[in-house]
Amino acid sequence: MAEILGYNGWRPNRDHDAPNFGGPKETYPATKFFDNFAFIGNKNVCCFLVITSEGLVLVDCMNPGDELYIEQGIKDLGYDPADLKAVLVTHGHGDHYGNADYFRQKYGTKIYMSSVDEAMALTPKTRPDGTISVLGWRVDGYIEGGETYTLGDETISFYATPGHTPGCLSFIIPVKDEGRPHKLMLWGGTGVPMDPELQKKYRQSVLDFTAICAREGVDCEVSNHPFVDQLCERLDVVRVITNGTPNPMVASVDAVARTLNMFKDLVDHRIALGILQ
Ligand SMILES: [Zn+2]
Fold first, then answer.
1. Ligand 1 centre and the CA of 178: distance in Å?
2. Cα separations (Å) of 77 from 118, 122, 125, 178, 210?
């Protein structure tokens, strides 16, 4: 079969030269790319800051130990971390829930995740290096597919996209580019799992979410692993353009479908490899 490459030449689960899961943390400046939406992260994993009329929301929380980096990123963007009202976690892996408890302890921030993935994260797992991975705290509330979270003038919609994890959520978030409204999607779970049942679910979730994004007119996309869709390279452009220049983070409904099709290619590739084995 033809070799299928992700964006940036990334190959699912086997390319250790390109930036990858758990790869080197090449830092990147916190960057606002919509009126109400900003990137905080490194080239391996990131979170997003949603700016509302009633405070700040963090989408994902990177790895445990990254909380000071995130806190500084919020300050660098010109916002006060004390205004952080909620952390919305896409799925129950440590590189996305991080130590959200740091913000809860310091600022009273509420933490939300799907119930299925909180249960998964509370189950201890042994990493390849022998250390144990387990969520050391409980969330404040659950978010599930079909639900929304509203703070001030922002409403974020959640969609169940099981596959990467059983309770993985993808988000649709209204954003504004110099006042012009757009809709942005975040595909919540990137890596294709080894479990064939979860692979099937991943594939169906991509198809379902592609239809939802088309129906909703979603015309912008991000991932919480920036190497997958060259997010930092696009932000390089954002950082040098002036108002009035087209924003490279504004894509199109068709481009969003193509990005999701890339994830379908990744899972199809993994399924084909499994069949060949
Ligand atoms: Zn994950």
1. 32
2. 30, 33, 36, 17, 32
pTM of the model: 0.91
CA 175 / ligand 1 centre spacing (Å) = 25
Per residue in 6-60, pLDDT tens? Answer: 444 444 444 434 445 655 578 999 999 999 999 999 989 999 999 999 999 999 9
CA 153 to CA 173: how far, in whole Å? 12
Q: Which two tokens stand for residue 83?
A: 């205004």
Residue 185, beta-bridge partner list: 172, 221
What number of other Cβ atoms are within 10 A of residue 52's Cβ?
Answer: 18
* Adjacent-strand bridge partners of 13: none
CA of 91 to the centre of ligand 1 (A): 7
- Per the CB < 8 A criterion, the answer to whether 175 and 160 are in contact is no
